Amino acid sequence: MSYARVLCVGLVGVTGHLVEVEVDLAAGLPGVVISGLPDTALHEARDRVRAAVVNSGQRWPNRRITLNLLPATLPKFGSAFDLAIAVALLGGSGELPLLPLDGVAVLGELGLDGTVRPVRGVLPMVAAAAQAGVQRVIVPAGNTAEAAVVPGLLVRGVDTLHRLVAFVRDGTPLIEPPLDAPPPAAPGPDLAEVAGQSLGRRAVEVAAAGGHHLALIGPPGAGKTMLAERLPSILPELDDEAALEVTALHSIAGLLPPGGRLIRRPPFQAPHHTATVPSIVGGGSGLARPGAISLAHRGVLLMDEAPEFSKAALEALRQPLEHGRVLLTRSRGSAEYPARAQLVLAANPCPCANPAGDDRCECPPLARRRYLGRLSGPLLDRIDLQVRLSPMRAAELMETGSHESSAVVARRVAAARAAAAERWAPLGRRLNAEIPGPDLRRTPWRLPGRVTVELRSRLDSGSLSARGFDRVVRLAWTIADLDGRARPDMGDVAEAITLRTGEGT
Ligand SMILES: [Zn+2]
């Protein structure tokens, strides 16, 4: 027999697709031809597979070898095809009877010595295999826990090509996934630890309830980072679909904690202000790595000291914020990753970053304007909530009374989100932050004139833009939802103005 075929899985974005690895051996000049849109890594696979086969004590067929990866139209990235190529080759050359691998998807990268190395993206690959009706998968030993997260599949691991060959030949057992479920992730930081800063706490709660992007402006020590880090703790847990999507993205980045478990808490990412554009939006050769904005998908992306980021990095956030996904254009095909993160920008009011705040700032007014001006335009334009935090006063720091915990605030947030989801269901939307301006301004959602008096006078005087008007109204809906009112009243609009314009205390 000179033909064999083994199942594998390729990834396009976060979506896995079943791939058939076909091998045909023919008489003729010895050599290997690979077809089916391979990337450079696949050409390197040829050399890796050859070394691994020989170093595992198997015979390398001295014939003309044609490798074909189907479907040919599917772009293929990465090194997860190695193991399937190796066994297909040994099957095709008659060295191995491949019946035991019938209907089994085989994933793994080979080292030159024949060891099987873990690969990125096993979770979405295995999930796709299961979706396509595959019932058994063989993955690198280091990926078994992750693969076992997908229900209804028989998962086995291999550490060497030799072990897989022994399994196929005489049924030598493969490695089973760990039985013990790992302990749940430790809870993140809690709002109960934040003393004082009532405006900041309220801003974070409103941001969570309405899904609004948030800018926190204030001197060092005002608690900006502390507050931002605690935003995920008051967001609802991820539902099954979101959890699978978020875990898949972390799997593709190679950042899943060991043990294998779906990520249920909204993720938190805080890239440093020296971060490169690829580290923020994603990129790299082979299987593209998701950037911080995709790792924060369904969670929170904090840009701390936001004006210090490069212009290119801030600019790169525009497209993902607008579309909820990142498109990475590659030489061969493009990768698209989800990127629906809630953005928190934290910034000092000026370059001198005097902890005493505006009182002791010695920066020239022009320098101050320029500093925050770096954030203006398209980015700041998408942010509903902009809050100016004052330096923490000693009295606040010494405050010993109990502060509300994240669990208590999270309950209000969940109730507010439920009210909003029910109201916007006819529009097919869930969060106040998602509602387009024209919908806010039409019946039955248009707010009566007496509620928007203050807003309209600001609009007329030019101190508020038309977009700013819509943003305040969105915030007012969220405040009403949090306080259990069916519609915003004048008080809600007044508080929304404070949260929008930063005219707080
Ligand atoms: Zn200053």
Short characterization:
The chain has helices at 40-55, 82-92, 122-131, 144-147, 161-170, 198-210, 224-229, 240-252, 277-281, 292-295, 311-316, 318-323, 365-373, 394-398, 406-424, 437-440, 453-461, 466-482, 490-501, and strands spanning 3-12, 15-26, 31-35, 64-70, 104-106, 109-110, 116-117, 136-140, 154-158, 214-217, 268-269, 282-283, 289-290, 300-303, 325-329, 334-338, 342-347, 385-388.
Taken from the alpha-carbon principal axes, the silhouette is elongated
Bound ligands, named by name, code or SMILES: zinc ion
How far from one another are the termini? 81 Å
State the helicity in percent bands: 25-40%
Radius of gyration: 27 Å
pLDDT < 50 stretches: none
Structural class: alpha/beta
How many DSSP-defined strands?
18
Q: Report the total helices.
A: 19
The description of the largest β-sheet is: 5 strands, parallel
Spatial strand arrangement across the major sheet: 11-14-17-10-18
Mean pLDDT: 90
Strand content: 15-25%
Describe this structure in words.
- This protein is an alpha/beta fold and 505 residues long.
- Helix content is 35%, strand content 17%.
- The protein has helices spanning 40-55, 82-92, 122-131, 144-147, 161-170, 198-210, 224-229, 240-252, 277-281, 292-295, 311-316, 318-323, 365-373, 394-398, 406-424, 437-440, 453-461, 466-482, 490-501, and strands at residues 3-12, 15-26, 31-35, 64-70, 104-106, 109-110, 116-117, 136-140, 154-158, 214-217, 268-269, 282-283, 289-290, 300-303, 325-329, 334-338, 342-347, 385-388.
- A hairpin with a 2-residue loop joins strand 1 (3-12) and strand 2.
- Helix 6 packs parallel to helix 15.
- The model has no long low-confidence stretch (mean pLDDT 90).
- Zinc ion is lined by residues 350, 352, 354, 361-363.
- Zinc ion binds at residues 350, 352, 354, 361-363.
